[in-house]
Amino acid sequence: MTSVSPTLAVRRELRNRILVVTVDNPPVNALGVAVRCALSDVIEAAEHDAAVDAVVLIGAGRNFIGGADIKEFGKPPLPPSLPVVCNRIEACRKPVVAAIHGAALGGGLEIALAAHYRIALANARLGLPEVTLGLLPGAGGTQRAPRLVGAQAALDLMLSGRHVGAQEALALGLVDRIGETDDVLHEGLAYVQALLDAKAPTRRTRDASGLADRTASRAAIEAARVDVTKKSRGLFSPLKIVDAVQAALEMPFDDGLNHERQLFLQCLDSPQRAGLIHAFFAEREVLKAPETRHAKPRVLASVGVIGGGTMGAGIAVALLDAGLPVTMIERDDSSLARGRANIEKVYDGLIAKGRMTADAKAAVLARWSGSTSYDALATADLVIEAVFEDMSIKQAVFAELDRVCKSGAVLATNTSYLDIDALAASISRPGDVVGLHFFSPANIMKLLEVVVPAQVSADVVATAFELAKKLRKVPVRAGVCDGFIGNRVLAIYRAAADHMMEDGASPYQIDRAVREFGFPMGPFQVADLAGGDIGWATRKRRAATRDPQQRYVQIADRICERGWFGQKTGRGYYRYTDGARTGTPDPDVEAIIDSERERAGVTPRAFSNEEIMRRYMAAMINEGANVVHQRIALRPLDVDVTFLYGYGFPRHRGGPMQYADSVGLATVLADIREFAQEDPVFWQPSPLIVDLVERGATLASLNHAA
Ligand code: 3H9
Fold first, then answer.
1. Distance 253 CA to ligand 1 centre (A)
2. 8 Å CB contact between 145 and 89
3. Tens-digit pLDDT profile for residues 291-331
4. N or C, which terminus of the chain has less Cβ within 10 Å?
C-alpha cells in the first residue's frame, strides 16, 4: 500500500482488504495534533490504495475517542483542524465505518458522524458534551447531528451534554447497528464486510434528511432558544449552539460549517471556556494528593457512624447508597430511633417522588444496624464521628473508639472547625485519625474535605480518598486550621458582606449581586437556609477571644436575639410566609439594620452591584490565597474545587483562584489596598498575592508545583 509515515498515535493494519485504523493515544485517545495529522494521512492513503476496499476506525484501550485534546485549547492552533479531518473522512470515496466502544464524546463522536456508518458496542457512551466546557461541537457536530437525528434530538444532546448508551443511540439514529460481543475489532470488521457484501454506498451524513421537516425543525430550534434564554443563567455557549443548529437548517452544509467554526472560535475565546476547562482538570487533579500516589488504601468494607442527627444520618445515607454496611451508634434507644427515622425520611422522600421503590428501601436499610454500645464497632474498618461540635464531647467519643476499635481501623471526625491534631493526640493511635468534613445535606453535597492532621498515616489519607470515590464525592485535601479550606474562607467573605450591609447595602441587594455573578444563592439566603442559631452560638463562644480591633457587625446577633433563625423559624433576613422556601425582603430587618448603623455611627452610602462583587470576591480571593500560602490547601486549584463543589461557586468562572487570575492579580491587589484604607485590620493583602504580583506570576502557575 501507499507509504504513510505511521505515528505511534494511530496504527494501521490491513485485514482482508479492510484497513483497520486504530487511534491509540492514551489515556482517552484525544484528538491531539499527531492524531489529526495521522488520521488525515491514513484516509488519504487508503483512498488511493488499490489494496484497500474500506476502512474501519476504532480506538485502543477503553474508549473510542474522548474528544478533542482539551489541553490544546487556548494555545495557537496546529493544523490540520478537526473539522478538516472530519471532512476528509466524510469525503473518502471508500466506505469508512466507525466501530465504537466506551466513550465517543465531542470530537470523538464528530469523527464517527463523519464516517459513513457507525456500529456501537453495548458499553458505548456517545455524547456531545462540549457545552460543559463552554464550547459547542466545532468539528461539524452542530451540522451533522441535526441532519442525522433531527433538530430536537441533536439540540437535546448538545445542550445537555449528556451521554447516551448504545440502545438509545440506535433508537435516535446516531448509530446503525449494535455489536453483539465485546470485541470491537471483530464487530467492526464483520460490519464492514457485511456492508461490502451488500455493496453499500459511501453514505454521507451531510446528505442525511433529519432536517427535512422544516416546520418541526424550526419549532424545535425556537423552543430551545426560549428554554436556553430562560435557564442558562449567563452561559455563553448554549445560545451559540442554537444559532449553529439554525444555520444547519438555513444554510447549505459548507456555509453552515463555516458558521459553526466562527461560533466555535467565539466560544473558544470566552473566559467561560477557560473557567470550565480549568474546572474539568482541577476536579481530576484534586484526586492526586501526595498520599494517594504513594500509599495504598486500607480495606473499606464496613463503616460505623456515631450520631444520628442531620449530619450523621446524611453521612449514613451516603454510605448506604454506596453499598456499604453501616452501624450507627447513639447514646440511647430513643436517639437511635430518631437517627433511623432521619435516614428513613430521606428514602421516603425518594419513594414519594417515585425515584425509589419500597423494596429498594428495605434492601438498603437491611445494611443498616444500630446500637447504643460502642462495642458494636469492634469490626468496623472505618468509623465516622458526627456528634455535637464540642471538643470534650468529641474527645470522649474518640476515647471510646480507641478502646473498642480493631487495630488498623480508620477513625474519622466530621468536625467543621475543631483542632483535629489535638483530637488525634488525645488517643493512643493518632496515626489512624483523619478529618472527613461532609457538607450538608451529606448524602447530596459532592464536596468532601479530607483534613490531614500532622500525625496521620499516608494510607489513612489514601483510604479517605478511596471512600470519596466509593461515595462519588469530590475529595479535597485540607490542612488543619479553623474552618479548613471552605469555612475559613467563607468566614472572611461573609464578614465582608456584613461590613457592606452595615455600610449601606441591603442584604437583598448583596444577595442579588451575588446571584447575578452566578451563585445560586446569596450569603444571606444561605444563612437563612443553614439556620442562624449555629453561627450565633459560635460567635458567642468566640466573643471573649475576638480581636477588639477587628470590626464586628452585630446585625446578625440582633436578628437571632428575636428568635429569627431563618427558614426553619419562618423569619431570618427574609420572611418565609406559610413555610415558603423563597423568602421576601423584610422591612423589620431593614429597620434593625438602620438602627444598628446608627448605633455603630455609620452613615449609610450606596453601593453598586459591581462594587459589592469587587469586595466580596477580593475577600474570598485574599483568604483563599492565605490558605494556599499556609499550605492548608495544596494548590490554588484545591481552593477552586472546594468552592465549586461545596459553596455553589459558578463553574464557568472556574473557582475563586481561577477567577482572580482572569481578573488579574494586580487588579485584585489594588482593590484590597484601596479597601484597606478604610479598614486596614480586615484588608491585609495576602503575602502570596503580593509576591505573585511582584513576580508578574499567576495563581495558576502554582497549580502544577505541588
Ligand atoms: C471537543 O471535542 C471539541 C470539538 O467539538 C471541536 C474541536 C475543534 N483531552 O476523566 P478521566 C484526561 S471538546 C485531554 O479520569 P475516565 C484527563 O484529564 C472535548 N485530556 O477518565 C485525565 O488525565 P490525568 C469533548 C483528557 O475513564 C485522563 O484523561 N470531550 C481529555 O473516568 C483520564 O480522564 C469531552 O468533554 C481530553 N478530551 O473518563 C470528554 N479527556 O490522568 C472529556 C480526558 O492526567 N472526557 N482527559 O488526570 C471525559 O468525559 C472522560 O475523560 C472520559 C473518560 C469519559 C472520556
1. 28
2. no
3. 999 899 999 999 999 999 999 999 999 999 999 999 999 99
4. N
The reported pTM is 0.94
The grid cell for 296 is 495504598
Q: What angle do CA 555, 639, 434 make, to 5 degrees?
A: 95
Ligand 1 atom with the shortest distance to the CA of 108 = 2
Longest dimension (CA), the chain: 91
pLDDT at 706: 55
**Grid coordinates representing 463?**
483510604
Structural domains in the chain?
3-269 (3.90.226.10), 300-478 (3.40.50.720), 486-702 (1.10.1040.50)
Which residue spans within 258-308 are E strands per DSSP? Answer: 303-306
Q: Cell numbers of 617, please?
A: 470576591
Q: Which atom of ligand 1 is nearest to the CA of 82?
A: 8
Supply the pLDDT for residue 233: 79
CB atoms within 10 A of CB 596: 19
Cell numbers that stand for 475 in this block = 475529595
Gap from CA of 71 to ligand 1 centroid (Å): 9
Q: Is the pLDDT of residue 600 over 60?
A: yes
In this structure, the residue with its CA closest to atom 56 of ligand 1 is 66
Task: Give the type of residue at 572.
Answer: G
Task: Provide the sign of the torsion angle of the four alpha carbons 434, 439, 440, 446, taken in this order.
Answer: negative
Dihedral, 280, 281, 284, 288 alpha carbons, nearest 10: -160
Looking at residue 6, its pLDDT comes to 52
| Ligand 1 pocket at CB < 6 A | 27-28, 30, 63, 66-71, 82, 103, 105-107, 110, 129-130, 133, 135, 137-139, 141, 281, 284
User: Which ligand 1 atom sits nearest the alpha carbon of residue 137?
Assistant: 5
- Measured from the Cα of 287, ligand 1's closest atom is 48
In this predicted structure, the answer to whether residue 61 has a pLDDT above a threshold of 70 is yes
Residues 6+ apart with CB under 8 A from 351: 357, 358, 361
